[in-house]
Amino acid sequence: MAKTYHIVTFGCQSNLADSERIASVIENAGLKYIENKEKADILIFNTCSVRQKAEDRVFGYKKEVEKLKIGNKKLKIVLTGCMMHYSEKELKRRLPSIDVFIDIKEIATLPKLLKIKIKNVRHPMSSIEDDYLNLEPKYTSKFSANIPISYGCNNFCTYCIVPYSRDREYSRSAKDIIEEAKKLIEKGYKEIWLLGQNVNSYNYNGFKFSELLREINAIPGDFWIRFASPHPKDFSNDTIKAMKESKKFVHYINLPAQSGDNKILKKMNRPYTALHYKKLVEKIRKEIPDISLSTDIIVGFPGETKDQFKNTKNLFRDIEFDMAFLSEYSPRPGTASTMVMKDDVPHREKENRKNSLNNILIKTALKNNKKLKGKTIRVLIDKKNKGSFWGRTEGNKLVEIRPSAKIRIGEFKDITITAISPWRLKGKIK
Fold this sequence. Notes:
Blueprint: E1 4-9, H1 13-28, E2 32-33, E3 42-47, H2 52-59, H3 62-71, E4 76-81, H4 88-94, E5 100-102, H5 110-115, E6 121-123, H6 129-133, E7 144-148, E8 150-151, H7 162-165, E9 170-171, H8 174-186, E10 191-195, E11 203-204, E12 207-208, H9 209-217, E13 224-228, H10 237-245, E14 252-254, H11 262-267, H12 274-287, E15 292-299, H13 306-319, E16 323-328, H14 336-340, H15 347-370, E17 376-385, E18 388-393, E19 398-401, E20 412-420, E21 425-429
Parallel strand pairs: 1-2, 1-3, 3-4, 4-5, 5-6, 7-10, 10-13, 14-15, 15-16, 19-21
Antiparallel strand pairs: 8-9, 11-12, 17-18, 17-20, 18-19, 20-21
């Protein structure tokens, strides 16, 4: 009889939120979490397929899980998450030791499947999405929580597997989202992340994202609201207004640009231009002058010339981002870019372009952080490591804080910034 479980989570915050729901289902069935996966009775892989490297990490577990199976004949291994878009035959060929393949939306049925002595079960898709999103999570943090507000995506960016791995977009009931947020705030949570593949396209029976922000802002309590990830095409004036009016919305957003060249954006099926993106940033900064901005960029997209890449560099210089998540293009099976475009930018050139953007980012991040030196800013303390406390500002900047008996993990503290670097601030309690 299985008594313990371990979850290995790959990928983004949405996957982390999924794993919290998996944990809740498993623990309600009587199992206990164990840190050491080698001693677990049930081992669950919650997978990511947004980039090839993420999938390679999962497939890289093949020998390890085979060894674990030899050492523990009763071990059951489960695979779920975004890699379920592969066929059962392909998954079984690459990972023959997996016992159960299950779509994340069917995760409530997992305990039943594990009790049945049937190997290689692949559970079909169904229409119980609301049941899945409304499963009560086992939150991994006592002060910061992820709340999925939508699932899937309808955008079909040509490089992206998400519409295939997570299916079409649907929005969760506003009532359920607000109720989950209220319960968390009542428990003392200090940070609420609203999550969706295209979070600002949220629309539940006409109830839009800007309205959801206002409703959560109206919940009594001392807490921050964050969200990820928005799409530039869906960033409405009313959303900007709601952000500005909210006392709890943090002054930080990640606004994926993906490229600064109009022809590449069109090939990516990103329905905006570089100028539209720049004007959107100007509009946001006009209303919220101290906002911190990060972005996502893909370098080496099929057919990207050196001149086209220069346009992305120009966008980088013009916007002066605080942070950026830079990735090299990798073909994803089944996507339009893989089927009809040639991956013709050499790997070395992709690396050079990525490094070139990173060099610009170092300068702009340092320039932006210099404005904070000597200021006292609010920080949410999230951990202690090697004698120092660590936390993040509203602008999502990492802060190392001198030890103090007045500091507690999971609390807000006013911290005076004493030193800066591109990626980290240092400070002391006021």
